[in-house]
Amino acid sequence: MKNSTNDKSEKNDKLWKDAEAELKIHARALGLAPGASEIFIKKSLNAAQKSLKNRKIILRADLTRTVSKELKKYNADLAYVFENYDKII
What we know:
Blueprint: H1 4-29, H2 34-52, H3 60-71, H4 76-88
Helix pairs in contact: 1-2, 2-3, 3-4
């Protein structure tokens, strides 16, 4: 039997990895330079992880809102697409 804490941790890790992959796809679609977008995506994800580190369960909405807030510092278009992708498509 698996430990439920490990299950939550694995789910959170997958959530962060999925968000990073999604951001890279959106950045490519917006025509952003791959090197620069990689840097500010990582910075945004790291800052969001720090602000959400005390939460045991991280919802997708929490992650999206927090990452978008950080992304706005670097690229407002990417932040908008990431935050509203489900509404745009």
